[in-house]
Each structure stands twice: as structure tokens, then as C-alpha cells.
UniProtKB/TrEMBL annotation:
Keyword Nucleotide-binding: yes
Any GO BP: folic acid-containing compound biosynthetic process
Catalytic EC class: ligase
Catalytic activity: (6S)-5-formyl-5,6,7,8-tetrahydrofolate + ATP = (6R)-5,10-methenyltetrahydrofolate + ADP + phosphate
Ligand binding (substrate): E57
Cofactor: Mg(2+)
Protein name per Swiss-Prot or TrEMBL: 5-formyltetrahydrofolate cyclo-ligase
Residues the entry annotates as binding ATP: K10, A11, D12, L13, R14, R130, L131, G132, R133, G134, R135, G136, F137, Y138
């Protein structure tokens, strides 16, 4: 395959997106603003799962503010465990994969208490397909989400691609904000 031909499988697309994300700097503000509006349009959502951005991902921690319950994941073996975070500056420390994670002592929020999940990803498609980093953490997590919980992919516009080659085990997003 030449570097310019379109990706034909998950592994190709992961490679392409990883190198695109490394090659440039991007502006998070436009997407962060859209998320803020989305949150105010959904006052019924009280408990919201966030993530602490890896390089290239949209940084959404600044959206944490009083009035909602904000859940952040900690990698525990093959699973993600969510804890309540009020103040990212004091409640997080660098953990697995160099990602900032909540302190273990913070209250645990069970997955079925979460009303909406903001999901990071390398790429998404218009059918709600999500390409993650290939460890299956979010698929295993979202299997245990409440059926009515909203799953929202967060990405830069260029990460919305025609096809992420979703497989049967891949849990689809209900929406994508980019
Ligand atoms: N911000 C954020 N938090 C997240 C995820 C994520 O994608 N983004 N995850 C989503 O599941 C989980 C962590 N999964 C990850 C899986 C692989 C790598 C990673 O750095 N992989 C290397 C490859 C080498 C390796 O496997 O260690 C790489 O990408 O270069 C990082 C996170 C939980 N928290
Ligand atoms: N629900 C599940 N239960 C057990 N294993 C799973 C499940 N979902 C995915 N896996 C396994 O995890 C591995 C990675 O899956 P996949 O490529 O879909 O990950 P991903 O969604 O890109 O990663 P991540 O969620 O960590 O960002 C695959 O080997 C897959 O078989």
C-alpha cells in the first residue's frame, strides 16, 4: 500500500490517525464550545463520564464545573473504573499509559449510574462507529452502560471518516461532537 491510498482495515486507519494526530497541533476550543452547548441542551443528564486527554485528543477537563457529577476513568486490569472528580488540578495523577487518572480514594461511580459517556477515539464514522486505541476498554465498559445512557464520541472534524471498519463487538455511539 502506498501511504496515500485509503485505509482498508482498522490497523491501517489506526496508523494513519496516530500519525496525523502527532503531525500537527489542533484547536480544541471550537469542539469544546459545542460540547458546552450540548451539555446545556441536556439538563436531564446529571452524571457524565469524561476522559483526560492524550496528546491530540480534545481536552474536555475544563468543562468540569459544579452542578453535575463528573466521572473519570482509572485503568484497573482490563477494566475502567470511574471515580467522581470535582477538581482536576488536585483529584488526578498520572497513571496507566501516561493518562491522568482519578485518585483511588475518590468515590467510585458505577457504570450504570452514568447518564452520558464522552468517548475519546482515533476516528469515528457517521454510523456511530468508533475506532479506539485497540485495547477494547471502551467496548467492555459500554456493554455495562445503562441502555438509555448516551454515548457521545468526541473528536476533531478530520477524525470523522467514511468508515472505521466497526466489528460486531464495537459499541456504536449515539452521537458525535466534532
Ligand atoms: N484519554 C483517553 N483515556 C483513555 C483511553 C483513551 O483512548 N483516551 N482509553 C481507551 O481505551 C483507555 C486507555 N487505553 C489506551 C490504550 C493504548 C494506549 C497507547 O498509548 N498505546 C500506544 C501503543 C503501545 C501500547 O499499547 O502501550 C500508542 O498509542 O502509541 C493508550 C491508552 C482508558 N483511558
Ligand atoms: N466486549 C468485549 N469483551 C471482550 N473483549 C473485547 C470486547 N470488545 C473488544 N474486545 C477485544 O478488545 C480488542 C480490541 O478491540 P477494538 O479494536 O474494538 O478496541 P478499541 O475500541 O479500538 O479500543 P479502546 O476501547 O481501548 O479504545 C479486540 O481484541 C477485541 O476482541
Amino acid at each position: 500500500m502506498t501511504p496515500s491510498s485509503p485505509p482498508t482495515c482498522k490497523a491501517d486507519l489506526r496508523r494513519t490517525m496516530r500519525s496525523l494526530l502527532k503531525s500537527a497541533s489542533f484547536h480544541d476550543e471550537p469542539v469544546a464550545k459545542k460540547i458546552t452547548h450540548w451539555i446545556s441542551d441536556h439538563p436531564e443528564l446529571i452524571t457524565i463520564a469524561m476522559y483526560a486527554a492524550l496528546p491530540g485528543e480534545i481536552d474536555i477537563l475544563e468543562l468540569i464545573s459544579p452542578g453535575k457529577s463528573w466521572a473519570l476513568p482509572r485503568v484497573e486490569g482490563e477494566k475502567l473504573v470511574f471515580h467522581e472528580v470535582r477538581s482536576p488540578d488536585t483529584d488526578l495523577k498520572t497513571g496507566a499509559f501516561g493518562i491522568r487518572e482519578p485518585l483511588e480514594t475518590l468515590p467510585i461511580i458505577p457504570a450504570d449510574k452514568i447518564d452520558a459517556f464522552f468517548c475519546p477515539g482515533l476516528a469515528f464514522d457517521a454510523r456511530g462507529g468508533r475506532l479506539g486505541r485497540g485495547r477494547g476498554f471502551y467496548d467492555r465498559l459500554l456493554e455495562n452502560a445503562r441502555p438509555d445512557a448516551l454515548k457521545i464520541g468526541i473528536c476533531h472534524p478530520f477524525q470523522l471518516v467514511p468508515d472505521v471498519f466497526a466489528e460486531a463487538h464495537d459499541i456504536r455511539m449515539d452521537g458525535i461532537i466534532c
